[in-house]
Design goal:
alpha/beta, Aspartate Aminotransferase, domain 1, seven-stranded mixed β-sheet
């Protein structure tokens, strides 16, 4: 699948922000100018797994790092900075308003808080204690869209109500309903699509939100859902956009964003006091977003395909190996190489392979069957319990290239070939 096929029919609005070069780590010493990781004994690695939070997400653009360093030398008023940056970001993302948050999770909490309280400061201080306040207290989402990150809504004191059909959705709406929420990465798992979900919200005059935290690329998703009419859109800043890992964006209706900021720092005594973003992150997020939108994404895609092909060619002819290049329909739409093997020819499990790569020099992190791994309490990896049973015993790994630095795809290809050949029966 080619990127031109994926983007067919999508309109990418041009932004007059000036040309920017292709995303590249080449020629920069920003990430190599300190041996502090070695000094304190923390392992660094080649990231062939993707933009996973527990793996520290992505690497900031050199321009973002430069912005952060420069911003650290000056004082400013935080509200004034959020005002100005919010206006610039809102224009880029086709929203009425926007604000930089401490990640997409923070955007979810603050956005809902804005809906609940409006501009009533007394209500702002009462959150998350909703009883007897007259504030609404329920968020409705599809059953397949009710996942762990919806805990962000519980932080406001609200509860989650799940439905499966349009009829159930309309029956669930009542005078306690604060918001209708949609999870974009699970759009193909629910029975209600974007348009119908929005239509119900409009019919009952209830704000509708969407979580697109990890749904970039494609770049057009940055403004697509604002154009569709969602009242709130939540986006991570530390993944494909390569802004600060601790930053995110809350985009949407001006009145809701204005109210949401009352529950955010620099104000205290509110539900979002812990959601602090500093001036460096706010400016870094702005620079990262502007650079990402103006990147040559066609050329970027061609580079990814070339690097994936190189790794594939290094292993596909090894006895017992099967490979497939896939592009997900939802989530991070990038090429992925899925490598599977016959254990009668290769004496290796997926876990063995990942640990061998991890313990090598340089250390390499790979994914599991196209799905993220999560660190468990013992410090080692575990698969999301909801999917672990279906993947038990699988001999396969997934390799991504979009987080690799210049030339690292050759290292990954060489190491994979070496490990597989050493494990041949």
């Amino acid at each position: 699948m080619k990127r031109r096929d994926i983007l067919k029919g999508l309109t990418i609005a041009p932004l007059a922000l000036g040309a920017a070069p292709l995303n590249s780590f080449a020629g920069s010493n920003v990430f190599k100018d300190s041996n502090l990781f070695n000094e304190i004994g923390v392992r660094t690695f080649i990231n062939a797994a993707g933009t996973l939070t527990y793996m520290s997400g992505s690497l900031m653009h050199p321009e973002v790092v430069k912005t952060i360093r420069e911003a650290a030398n000056h004082f400013c008023m935080m509200d004034e900075l959020q005002d100005k940056v919010g206006e610039l970001i809102a224009e880029m993302v086709h929203a009425e308003a926007a604000t930089v948050t401490s990640g997409a999770f923070s955007a979810m909490t603050l956005g809902l808080a804005g809906i609940l309280t409006g501009l009533d400061l007394k209500k702002v201080e009462q959150l998350p204690h909703l009883q007897g306040t007259g504030m609404k207290s329920e968020v409705i989402c599809q059953k397949s869209h009710d996942e762990r990150y919806n805990h962000a809504f519980l932080n406001t004191g609200c509860t989650i109500v799940t439905v499966e059909t349009l009829a159930e959705l309309e029956n669930a709406i009542n005078d306690k309903t604060a918001m209708l929420h949609f999870l974009n990465i699970a759009a193909d798992k629910g029975k209600i699509n974007h348009a119908d979900w929005l239509a119900v919200g409009k019919k009952y005059k209830i704000p509708v939100s969407i979580d697109i935290a990890a749904d970039v690329p494609p770049v057009s998703n940055i403004w697509k859902f604002n154009d569709m009419g969602f009242d709130l859109v939540f986006l991570s800043g530390g993944k494909a956009i390569r802004g600060p890992q601790s930053a995110g964006l809350l985009m949407g209706r001006k009145n809701i964003i204005e109210a949401a900021r009352l529950s955010a720092p620099p104000r205290g005594f509110n539900v979002g006091r812990a959601h602090k973003v500093n001036k460096e992150e706010i400016l870094g997020m702005y620079v990262a977003l502007k650079k990402y939108i103006n990147t040559d994404h066609d050329k970027e895609w061609q580079n990814w395909e070339s690097e994936i092909d190189h790794i594939n060619n290094a292993v596909k002819n090894i006895k017992g190996i099967s490979t497939k290049i896939i592009v997900p329909n939802l989530g991070n739409i990038t090429p992925n190489l899925v490598i599977s093997w016959d254990p009668s020819h290769i004496n290796l499990t997926g876990k063995d392979l990942r640990e061998t790569l991890r313990n090598g020099n340089p250390s390499i992190e790979a994914g599991f069957a196209g799905l993220p791994l999560y660190p468990n309490q013992a410090g080692s990896e575990s698969i999301d319990p909801k999917i672990a049973a279906t993947l038990k015993g699988e001999n396969r790994v997934t390799i991504t290239v979009w987080m690799l630095q210049q030339g690292e795809y050759k290292i990954v290809a060489k190491k994979l070939k070496e490990v597989f050949e050493n494990a041949l029966v």
